[in-house]
């Protein structure tokens, strides 16, 4: 098995370049005053990290920095994964994340929806992640554990409080537990990749049922449509504390160039990370407007968004390039409603810029991967649904959030 060790620096180097992405997302670059940036310009993305590193070293003196490791598949990465990594980071000073290889996911769970490269881009885009290891194994084997301790200087291996079992029923973290180098965080309730795949599959079934009705010239039962949409509604309950935990909690500096970008940001994917990175490079502070569920439904159809407003907001907020979000942004970037071009005012003020996406991935293309291979994903989901149900039935109190 090949294993690559990646340092944080590549995150800023723009590893991935693809032509086009999600139908030309509009970007409004609102340059609020020409200034020297408070971080020193476009090429300074790593500076906030360097600054915090120096600050930390000074504060800690010669004290050894605690390095923690968390691994995972991070398929269809959601705010539950982000919250797991946020909690892991809080258990140490530096967080190294192992992204499990496609082959290992297939062998242990079923086919992943996102490729290794896409999952790596998502994990690397998170604000709490310092380093990533690509193609990590699913189980902490003795050989890999020694490599973590000796080569990567890892102090603790971390996982959520949900059991992670190998096909033979043994605990994937047994060895780390045995040597006393295992720590646990609280799993985020109400979201999982299984749940997201389920939402997409059930919307596919509803659409199909609706088409069958239409083909048979039968009137569509509106109650059934509402009930089936409700059947795959999220169980997530947003709290103000969670938003604060994900937030940078600071506004733009006095002469900062503020960039505004808006969109649905549904099923947060590698293309979103790239466009947010590009947008952030245009200024000093990135404000992201997240459309309301209603706006997304109006423009993309009744089964959109797949993730609701608060879920989408947390995913965007977890991205390292984002400084702040507007939870429920309007379609038009103006106080005057009813204009055909939502960016008309911004254009007339000369503060509009259209960014070409470097990636071809879209929310729809991700959903289509699941629909095209729905039998395999139904199987994968059925298997995982059993262990998730068991987790909720047997869960015990674990400190952390
Ligand atoms: N995790 C979490 N909360 C969730 C989902 C995942 O805390 N709602 C944690 C897991 O406990 C694990 C890490 O995120 O430590 C990576 O999870 P992953 O390997 O992707 O697998 P799953 O736990 O199966 O995640 P999902 O159910 O979303 O597929």
Q: Can you characterise this structure?
A:
With 401 residues, the protein is α/β, with parallel strands linked by helices. The chain has a 6-stranded mixed β-sheet. A 5-stranded mixed β-sheet has the order 10-9-8-2-11. α7 packs antiparallel against α8 and α7 crosses α15. It starts with a strand and ends in a 7-residue tail after the last helix. The N terminus is likely disordered. Bound molecules: cytidine-5'-triphosphate. The site of cytidine-5'-triphosphate has 17 residues, from β3, α2, β6 and α7.
Mean pLDDT, to the nearest integer, reads 79
Which band does the percent of strand residues land in?
A: 5-15%
Structural class: alpha/beta
**Runs with pLDDT <50, length 5+?**
1-58, 217-231
Cα-atom radius of gyration? 22 Å
Name the hetero compounds present: cytidine-5'-triphosphate
Work out the helicity level: 25-40%
Count of helical stretches:
15
Shape: globular
Order of strands, widest sheet: 1-5-4-3-6-7
Major beta-sheet overview: 6 strands, mixed
State the distance separating the first and last CA atoms.
Answer: 34 Å
